[in-house]
Each structure stands twice: as structure tokens, then as C-alpha cells.
## 1
Amino acid sequence: MRSPRFRRQPPPAPSQTLDPPEPVEVLPVGEVVEMLLDEQGYCGAYVTAVVASFDPDLRSYAVEYGTLAVSGASGHPLPKVVLASQVRPRPPPPPPGKPLLPAEHAAVDALRDGAWWLGVALLGGDLADGRVKVCFPETREVLKFDAGDVRPHLEWVAGEWRSPEDMESFKRIPYTKGTQVEVAKFEDDSVVAWFPAVVAKTIWKNSILVEYTSGKGDGSQLCKEIVDMKHIRPCPPRASAISFCINDDVEGFQGDGWWPGRITGIRPKLLYTCKIANSGKEVQLDQKALRLRCDWTDGQWKQAAQDLPQTKFTEGKRVEVTSNDEGFCGAWFQGTILKSVGHKFLVEYDTLKADDETTPLTEVIGEEHIRPPPPVFPVTNGLKLLDEVDAFTNDGWWVGMISEVISDQRCMVYFKAYNEQNEFGIEQLRLHCDWLGGRWMRASPALEM
């Protein structure tokens, strides 16, 4: 038996179950319109068509268009059924008289292969011979057109034609002027390299003018290009590896761009052999010209999976040891492994002494507090302000930051964890790096004071 409380509730009104469909402005049969194509090779372009019929239930049109359609036995264009959202009236015709040259970087439509394609007008067109230069950011092509085949771009919105300058979406491009980015280089529809650039101007929808930051080596003006936003990514994180392993997926800097590749050889003095993925060519690159490959996916940086060899700490291995005990934060002490059992290691320290102050101190250490000695990272141009360093003091290496460069041989180092500052000779300092995930990493030289 149903509860009286439920019987007193009236059934919902039918009108509340479904929202009424939005009204569609019906274009009359025989009307000349433009239809948005979705066929491969023509996606995003508009072609001229004629309305054959309208289906109010499916909210779709049957249209005929002869430019690209396959004709039947009668020789007439075959009808095509498309959603009403893919059909719009023809844009208003240009004013009579001689065509006007579009403004630089104005959004335009250009008639190509029987369809109207969205592009960007460039300077360099010459109306004396009736030609206009247009860039297509998605394909990175630049072509010339007869002036009569280029028109100002307009958008059909809520039953009226609107120019790009009047639309709010024009202001929502995430990359603003001056943003540092990287631009993809394509070969056969695949990304083969990334080139550093700066956003010079946002144009319309996804079109962005970039200025490449690497010179051509001959002192000429830096190159500019209009590209689609999907060919751009932010600059990757600045933390970089200072040691690489065989088969690491990396990007190597060559010819003013970062080229994906794989480490195939390790050479002395932080030199590596890298096999470039696109060409298969092997090149010798310095550690500074390499970085671990990261991919920009769904608005986040994701590091490419690396197949790292497992570090083995065995008897006789040189290591560095840290501690979580109060007063030892940020310090690493050098020693040698005497014995290993599972994930525990008996370590004899180089400088720390036992209670008799003569015998080297030995201690059992867990694997989480041990690492290999860091590589010798040469300081070619001297230490600089805010460089993160390790300073050798109190029998160990303590992480700090250069707070003052006194001379080429002397620096002041600030230890943030202890709010102390001391003077050191350059022979007592080394550039700081971290042992992360089985490799040595060095962060960008900027710490908060």
C-alpha cells in the first residue's frame, strides 16, 4: 500500500520533462547557402549549396552542391543531408568597385579548390596584379589569390553576421603577447622538432603570430610565422638531468630546435651520443644540449617513460649519506659501503669519527638515505648569484645558495634551513644536484631567499 504522503503529490507536468528545442530559422527551398564540410581534406571549409528541403524533426537540411559532389546519371548534383548547424546564409557581398586590400593579419576567407577557407591576410600582396597573400595557420601554407577570391571573414551567430573583432572568443586565447613557447616542426604530419619562440600577437580564434628566438647565425632578422595554437606548447619545466642513461628518451638541441631522440652512447666529460628519431642520425651532444623528453598532454607536462637501470649499492661502492636528524637537514656525508643486507647498508664515513675521535664512524643506513656520489659538474663561467650549491663544511656537503660573489675565488653562501651565511673558497663548493628516480637532476638557479 502506498503512503498517503505520496498520494498527495501531483504527477509532474509533461512540459517539465523535456526542454523545448531551440527554434531554428528555416531557410527556404531554393535558397543559395553555404555549407560547412566535414569530409577528409575539406574539414572546416564552406562550399556554396542550394537548399533542397528541411526536416523539422531531425533539424536537418537536404542540400545540393556541385563543386565537390558526385553527380548521378542525370548529371545533377546529389543531395546531401546535413545538420542545420552546418548551413548558413551566404555572407553579404563586398561593396561595388575595386577590391580593397585586407589589413595585415585580418581574418579572411579565401576561395581555394571550390571552397572558402579561413586564413590570415599578409602584407606582400599586390593589388596591381590583383593578387592577395594569405596564410593558413593550420597547414602553415602561404598562397596568393586573386583579390576577388578573398573576402573579410564573418561569423554567423544567433541569426546575424559578426566580425571577429566584435566576438568575445577573440580575447580568450591562453597565450598572451610575450609568452615564451615552443613551436612544432612537422614532416609528413608528424612532429619532428620543437623550436623556441615568443608570442608576438594573437590574431583570431586559434591563430597566433610567433617570433622565433634562435637566430639564423648570419645576423639576419629573426623569423616570424603565423601558426595554429595546436602547434604550440609552453616551455617544458626547467629542471634538467645532468646525467643520462642508455636508451633515455631525450630532446637534443640542434639547429636552433629541440629534436626528439634516444641516448645510444655515454662518453667522457658529460658528452653523449644521441640518435635523432626523425633522421636516425647519431650526433655527439653536451649534457647542456640535452633534456629528458616531456609531452604536453591535456594541459599538463608528462615525462616520457624511461627504462632506467636499477642502481646497485654493493660492497666497496662509494656513496653519500644523509640524515633526517635535527641539525643535519640538507647535509650529505661521504663514505664507503662495507656490507649490504637487503635494503640496509653498513657504511664507513670518510670524515665522521667514532666516540674515540680517531676511528672512522660506521653506521647501518637505510636505502632511502643513500645515493651515489654526484658527477663532477664543471663551472665554466664561475659561480653566479642565486646558484644553488653544496658547500663543504662540518665534515659534509651542505646545500645552500650563492648570496654574494666576492671574487672569482670566494663566495658567500646562505643556508636557508639554518638562516646562516658563511664565506667559502670556490674549491669548497660544487653545483647542487638531486638524485631523483635513479638519475641526477639539477634545478633552475633561482631559490627563494
## 2
Amino acid sequence: MKPFSYHERYSTIKRKGSALSDSKSRSCLCSLFVVASLICGAYFTSSVFTSNEYKERVSRWGVISLMQNAESNKCKEQCRAPGSEALPRRIVVKTSNLEMQPLWSDTMENANSKRSKSLLAIAVGIKQKEIVDKIVKKFPSDYFVVMLFHYDGIVDEWHDLEWSNQVIHLSAVNQTKWWFAKRFLHPDIVAGYKYLFLWDEDLGVEHFNPRRYLTIVEDEGLEISQPALDPSRSEVHHQITARRSKSRLHRRMYKFKGSRRCDDHSTAPPCIGWVEMMAPVFSRAAWRCAWYMIQNDLIHAWGLDTQLGYCAQGDRMKNVGVVDAEYIVHHGLPTLGFKVENEFNATQPGITQSGKYSSSEATAPSESQKVDNRLEVRKQSFIEMQIFRKRWENAVNEDKCWVDPFKQSFNQSTH
């Protein structure tokens, strides 16, 4: 056998080393491929999970966003009183009342547990003190809150009456009850009262019981009403207010002669759907409407009466009426514009407008002088009625969104 030469041996070893090197290279390449495959698989797998997680997050974010938008819209839809936006909703108190509170108390009473009450508000002068005393005593404090509007500025002389410290006294000289009502009987202030009696002072209540009256009002569904006037003893300005014997209540009047005839087919004032302004009684909802209709500068409220039907919370032919079973007397006493002044005394003789002494005043210097401006008051009332009438017409023409539910032309009223 022929021995290998050095060259051959080197070539053999070189081929073996080359083969071994190629084997190792292929092995490394395979390993790299496997590692790369694993990395790619892991990448794609993680991408899938990441994508799903991202989608889930996006979905959750979308739900959260929708919830936030819904909550935002819900908050926007809440009706908040102007000026209260900076406060949490449940701390805001939108209404009040005229209840007097003690300076201290061992227990805090729950206002919601108190009996539902109504409110009696009267414009008063000291000359009608005796009549007003009888009126107030007819309204028991367990069921009614009383407010007196003193138009003559005299308050202290009422304190000898047993109920004086239990009622609210407001004083402003020579102001009408409508001036007081517009300023002190805002609907949010009297929202806690079921009915509002807004009365004059010269009313006899011998045959009137307010609780029985309200029972009839509720049974008949009256939103605006008044007690009927005893025609034999009262100063009756409008026939619709006159009491009908053997009747519980009435809603219309009848007139078959002259102008403005009224019959069963009449659908508007002065035949139906209104009451006079001396002794109106409003439901809570009706007063909220009527308060807005009272003009701030028209303090006599003439012309308002025939428009009250718009505040009757529906059909004025059904929801406005005069209660016959509980009736009153309208004395028609001189109040605003009529006063007595003691302008003369024993040391000061009387002087006429011309500056000369009158014989009668000289012989009786201490006599009182009567000052009667009721004619001027009546003239002003008529002027205000004309102004109100014009304002109503203008308001109807300007408000394109308002629809007249009665489709009736403006009805004039006389006093």
C-alpha cells in the first residue's frame, strides 16, 4: 500500500476541516433561522394580543367617553336657577315662605310634615281695624298665614289685637295691594301655599267660612275664584259677582238687554271666565301666572280682571267661578285717596284757599278737615287700564310664537 505524501495528507485534512466548517455554518444558520422564527412568531403573537388589548382599550375609552358625554348632556339638561350654577344642585333652595322661625329651638321640625296652608293678604288702613279684625279671626292660624299691607303707615296701633304678633306686617304709605303683591308675593316666595286670598279690607265675613270655601273650590276645580257678594247689602260693580240664592256657585252671568248681551252661548268676559279684583282667590299655579301679568308700574291693576282667564290653567269657562254658598259683603268704604287731617287747632284759625278766614272755621277751629282724592285715584285707575290694554295688544302682535287659546279679541272691562 502506497503511503500518503505530505501534500496529500494536508489536502485530506483541509477537506475534512472544510467539511466540518460547512457543517458548523449550516448548523449556525439553522439555529439563527429557528431563533428568528421564534422571534417573529413571538412578535406576531404579541402583536395580536397587543392589537386586541388596544382594541379593548379603545372600546373601553369609547364607552367611557360616551358615558361622560351622556353625563355631561344630563347635567346640561338639568334646569338650574340663574346664579346657582356654581353650587351643587341639592344645596340650592329655589323657594321660600312667610313662616316665622324661632330664634332658637331644642328640635328642628321637619317642614314637610307641616299641614298644607293657604295665604291671606290684605291691604289695610287703621280706620278699618275693626272690620279687618273680624276677617283675620275667620282664618285660623293652623290653616292660614296672614299678611297685612299697611297703606297708611300705621302699624303699632294694631299690636293690641291678639293675633297681631302672629301675622306679617308690611308698611308703605299710599300704595295699593297690587303694588305690595308684585313686590312681596313673588311666586317663589308663596310657592308653599295652596291658595292665595288677595283681599280688600272693606269686606264683611259674617256668612263666610274659608275652609268650607276652599272645599267647594277644590271640588269644582276652580283655579281662580271669589266669594259672591250679598246684593242686598253690598256695593256691586259687576253683576257676575252678585250672589245667587240656593246656588253653590256660578260661572257665568246673563244679560238679555242692551249692549254686550250674555247668554248660554257666551264664551268670554264680561259674561264668563273672570272675577273682580276686590276679593280674588288664586291657586298656586294660577297665581304664578297672574303675578307675571301684573305690571310693575300699574298699581291699580284695572283691566287685569278680564284677562285672568289666561291664567286659569285650562278652560276659563270651567276653572273660573264665583262661590255663592260662602259669600261676603262689600261695604264700599272710602280707603285710598280719602283721609281726615287735623289741620286746625284752638290756636290756629282756619284759612281758606284764598288766604282769608272762613267764619265756620273761626268758630270751630278744632274740627277735622276731610280730604277726598278718590276722584283722582279713579282717574288714574282708568288711565292705567288704557295703558294695560294697549300693552296687551302690543304684546300679542309682537309675540309671533304665542297662540291665543281662546281666539278672542281683547275684552274691555269697566269699573
## 3
Amino acid sequence: MLATRFGRLLRPCRLVISSSNKTKFSSGSGTQSHEVENGREFKWLWPAYREEEMFKAAHDIGCKSLIVCYRFNTVKPLDPGHVEQALRHFQRKVPNCRGFFKERDGKLWVCEDPNPDVDFECLEGAESSAIINEHINKPFRGDRSPTWKARLVPVPADAPCAMPEIQAAFPHQYDLVFMPHHSFMDGITIALSTGKLVGLLNDLIAGRPVNDEPFGVYLNNEEIGKIDEGIAKDLEKEPEKLESAKQEILACDTPPILCKAFPPPGGKPATKFVNQIINQKSLASFTAKCKANGVTFNSGMEAVINTAIIEMVREAGVEGESHHMSINLATDLRRYMKRRPLPIYGLHVRPTVHRIETPFDVRDNFWDYTRKFHQRLSVLLKSGDALQQTVVREMTLPQLPPVEYHAAGPKPLRDYGLTNVGDLTPIMPGVGEHLQQTSVSMFGCTHFFGFPMFHQIYSFRGHMPYTIGYDTSYISKETAGALMDRIVTLMHDLGTSP
């Protein structure tokens, strides 16, 4: 099949690699049953829970998607057949890559296909940025497998490399654009599972055998649901505490101050990105300053973002002494689940909102502000209040069904959203004798998420690829770019100041 993309005639390389190996199901559900439909076997796993339903409804209309781009440098030109073969092994070893949705007795269920196709193309002459922009706002149905896509893009040899010291021995460059359905894979799952890709591909190039042992166990939210039930029972006994918690949540619903200073452009909601690679020196110095002041890198970065926003709006003419920043965090629920022998895969994140008063002159006392910020955030996450927020919302506030919620086009009630998956290097080493991974970039769709921009924080092999996704109906390209520049400058200045 011929496809014209990005101004050139491209011939996608679509290979089907068959396997005689039986798939090993490793989903952690007690409700599984097998069924055959249209000659294909599949397995019922569990009734979809709200977080899964929300992402499905969002993906159906083209929002809340997540795309990851990996840069591979190789000793010799990469054979696309090896890549698809690696992806076929990957799909067998990552059970949620075989997931899809299907209705059963009027209820949406998560199902598993034992041997789904692989949606893979090699696109000569394409650009990974164009592929990302093409798919980030595109609907992605989850009611049939496969529920993920991959695109391999050869990159010119003279294109910039984040690790030039490696490029001499690994001169051939490729981008692998990975596009999963977010209902089946959260950011932690993506990092944990795709961190194995370099090893798989390296073994295939070397001619070594690959076993079918799973990389992780695919679990539903049963364990978290039981914790929720306990929280709800306790709150029912203390109506005053329930009402107080409700008011705390409602107090976080505030229009983004950046939109007050820089009027929204309007138009149809869509997501675009600005991204920057924070160099090793700035990253190391700022990390050291965070440690010296007794705060995590995450708290330091949130404080930098808050400072950057406050300074921009103050310089734009917004008056006042302070603003209560309202921040949406993607909280990893695994911290509240019991450990398993294998990593827990699936969708195990929830939004946690917190707010902090940020003075307009916050830079003058930045580290004092950051320590206070860090202490409050640590208490929120360690106390279980992050789980309580969801329970309180469901007990006291109207809950629209997922389809209606997204059809209504939720308005931003937070200053921004943020996710931090930490240093990826231990789980994504990216080192092999035939290829090395030299960078990774994550792109999260922002519109209809309830905030105008989304900051994605992580580091990889001493670098920090930093992406801000912004809703084009609320934030302009110029404003997003200016904010990124301000954040990068603040990181350098605060990390190197006495």
C-alpha cells in the first residue's frame, strides 16, 4: 500500500511475524473466562472501572492520548523486520498490549486477545514530529485489537544526537514512535515495559533466542477499590470531615492565572507542544540544590513552574501579592498496593489536586517556599488523602458518565497538570552492543483534561527531556514558548546561585 505523507511518496513497511509459541496469559484477575467470536478466541478479564472508561471515552473523541518517541542509534542500518519481530515478542511479554474493550450484558469489559496483529510501519522520509502531531488529536478506538501502534522513522545521520559521544560508534539513527491506548497503559507501565525494547531488539540482531516470560503482571483496580470502600465507610461516620474535605476540593477549582494575564486564543481545542532538553550541567546543579535544601526534585520543579508562571503574569500587569496555585498531579496508585514479584502493569493513576499560596515575589525566598511546598505535598501523598479526594468527589459531587463528561468539554479549573516518572535510566538503560537508546520524549494530550497545560518531567541517561503540552484554545504558542524559556532559565539560575 502506498501512502503520501509529509510531501513525499512513502512505502510503509508492514511485516507480519508469525509465531508458534503459545501466549502466556499473565493478567491478575479472578474473573477470566474464554470465548470464541468470529473464529477468534478472546478472554473476558474484568468490568472496566471508571478510570479506564474515562480514557476510552476521551480517546473515542481524540483527546487524553499519550505518545512516546525513542531515539535508537545503531552500529549497522536497522532492519525493520527485526523491529517488528521485537514488537511481536514485546506484545507477548506485556499482557495489557493485548487488551481491548467489549460490551457484556450492557457493561463495558476489558478483554484480552491471545494473538492480536501488530500495527507497525516503517516510514522512510517521514518526521517523527509530524507523526506525533498527526496522531495526538486523532480518535483511537479501543474496542478492537491491537490497541497500540508503532512507527519507525529513519533519521538523517547528521541530525543532532542527545549523546554525541555515542554517535561515533553508533552512527545510524532511528526514531520509534510508540502510541498506546491510555486505558491499558499508564506512564509508569509504558516506562517499565518499553525499557525492555532495546534488550529485545539487541538480542534479535545478535541472533539470540527470546523467551516468552512476561515482563509484568496486568492488574485491575480491585485492591484500590477495597481501600476506597474503607475510606467511604469511615467518612460516612464523620459527616463534618466529609463536608470539610469537599470544601477543600472545591477551593482548588480556580481559573488558571496564566489565562488571566494572556487571554486565551479560542478556537477548537487541540494539543500542541514545546519541548527542551535540559543539559546535564543544569540538571545536576539544580538536583544538588534540591537535595541540599531537603526537598525532592519533583517539589523543586513544581516550585520552579509556579515561580515562572507568577513572574510572567506579574510582568504582564496582573496585580496582587499572591495567587493560590492549583496543581493537578498524576498520582501513581502502586504506592498504595502490595508489591508483586513482577512489576504491576495497567492503568493505576489518579488525579490528585493540591494548592499552595505563591507570593508574587516568590523568587526572593525560593527555597523557603519550596521546603514548605514539599512538606505539604509529602503529607498529602503519604497520608492517603490522594485516594480520599476521589472518594469524596464520588460521595458529594455530581459525576457525569464518561461520554457525557467529555462531550461537555470540561473547562480548565487548575493552573496546570504535572506528571513525574523520575529517572528512567534504571528501568530503561538503553544499552546494547548493536544499538543504544540515546533519548526518550513523552507527549501527553492536554485538552479536555481540566487544565490548560501539562508538564511531563523525567530524566534519562543524565539528560532531562522536558515537554509542555498545551491546549491551543487556552494557551498560545508564544505563551507556551515563553514559559518554557522562563523555566529553563530559572532552573539554571536557582541551581547555580549561592
